[in-house]
Amino acid sequence: MDNLPIVIGVVVVVAVLAYFLFFRKKALPEPAPKTPESAPTPAPAPKAEAPAPKKPEVSAPVAPTPSVEAPPPPEAAAAEESVPEIVAPSAEPPPVVSKKDVAGLRKGLAATRGGFMARLKAIFTGKKEIDPAILEQLEEVMLTSDVGVKTTQAILERLRDRMNKSELADTDAVWAALRAEATRILSVPVPTAKRTSKPLVVLMVGVNGVGKTTTIGKLATKWNADGKSVMLAAGDTFRAAAVQQLEVWGKRVGAEVVKGKEGADPGAVAFEATKKSVDGQADVLLVDTAGRLHTKVNLMDEIKKVKKTIGKALDGAPHETLLVIDATTGQNALTQAALFKEALELTGLILTKLDGTAKGGVVLGVCDELKVPVRYIGLGERAEDLREFVAADFVEALFGKDDDEAAAA
Ligand SMILES: Nc1nc2c(ncn2[C@@H]2O[C@H](COP(=O)(O)OP(=O)(O)O)[C@@H](O)[C@H]2O)c(=O)[nH]1
Ligand SMILES: [Mg+2]
């Protein structure tokens, strides 16, 4: 009987132990399968999320970039930003190369296009690869088209140099290089005239028959049409016909012609004309001169004297001393021009009769050797046949395609 509480205690302890054993076993396997079940879910989840954020991170910038770049914002931004940039550089070419001018020029330069340029083009036509003989062929065409020895050699030297550096891959590249050379040579900067008061005094010089008087008439017509008051000085006092010729132009444009008696001192006429043009508030005074070539020294001395006298009548005048050259006289034109440049401070050249020569290459030679800018070119005898010289237009008219060619291309 005394053992009864002990037996009851043992039974209770066994029961409690059994109970705990049963429930712990049940509780363990339950969380166990729960843990592996929930573990894979959260574990791969973070694992998948971990690389996932990486992928999105990589693809995020890629995906959004094209989608942002391609559609509106960047393009709109680029367009907005590039407008001034595109406008600025492309705003420059139009005033330099105008289609209208080029078409007219092309017509006026038809003889040179059919001569010099056609011969140049023939060297390139139908060939893509550069023939080693190309430079010799170019040399021959340039020399026989009055480009002049010095300029021809200088151009060839530069082409050879670029070929050796493999910068010119095919004939197209050589043609482009030739065109660039021409543009470079013809782009001589125009000196800025230092003038403080009216009128602009222009002294026209050159040998007999090159077109001085005609060019004066053409310029007078042009400036008159621009609303400028023009006065003319008949500085060629040696031929009555020269004075009459100027008077015809004067009448045509309503410009006063200041003249002396036949055989008068040209300096005196120029002096009087300059004074008159100042007093009469003319905008422009164009001074014609004689171009006798009996003795070159005399001619130069005489023109120098005329120039000096004009300066005495108006400080700083003449503002322009323009040498007129007949393009049809080829290498002679170059020799003459060099003589005039030596004697006078030339501010520009006018090449006349380019309509009458197939050898317009002379412009390159004259410009290159003298480093005096061409200001006007004469493409015929009529007033409207004088054109302001724009290097890019001129080069385009010579090297560019015909309208027909351009349309066919
Ligand atoms: N075809 C053509 N003839 C011209 C041009 N400029 C002048 N002439 C002609 O060349 C000749 C001589 O011109 P002129 O002005 O008397 O020369 P100047 O002696 O230098 O004054 C004239 O018959 C002009 O009509 C031109 O650009 N083209
Ligand atoms: Mg004359």
Helices and strands in order:
Elements: H1 4-27, H2 31-38, H3 44-49, H4 51-62, H5 64-69, H6 72-91, H7 93-96, H8 99-108, H9 110-124, H10 134-143, H11 149-164, H12 171-186, E1 200-205, H13 212-225, E2 230-233, H14 240-253, E3 256-258, H15 266-279, E4 284-287, H16 296-313, E5 320-326, H17 331-343, E6 348-352, H18 362-370, E7 374-378, E8 386-388, H19 391-399, H20 403-408
Parallel strand pairs: 1-4, 1-5, 2-3, 2-4, 5-6, 6-7
Antiparallel strand pairs: 7-8
The structure holds guanosine-5'-diphosphate (GDP) and magnesium ion.
Protein model, in words:
With 409 residues, the protein is α/β, with parallel strands linked by helices. It has a domain at 1-36. Helices cover 60% and strands 9% of the residues. It has helices at 4-27, 31-38, 44-49, 51-62, 64-69, 72-91, 93-96, 99-108, 110-124, 134-143, 149-164, 171-186, 212-225, 240-253, 266-279, 296-313, 331-343, 362-370, 391-399, 403-408; strands spanning 200-205, 230-233, 256-258, 284-287, 320-326, 348-352, 374-378, 386-388. An 8-stranded mixed beta sheet has the order 3-2-4-1-5-6-7-8, with helices on both faces. A hairpin with a 7-residue loop joins β7 and β8 (386-388). α11 packs across α18 (362-370) and α13 (212-225) packs parallel to α14. The chain is extended and about 165 Å long. The chain starts with a helix and ends with a helix. Mean pLDDT is 79; it is low at 20-97. Magnesium ion is lined by residues 212-213, 236, 242, 288.
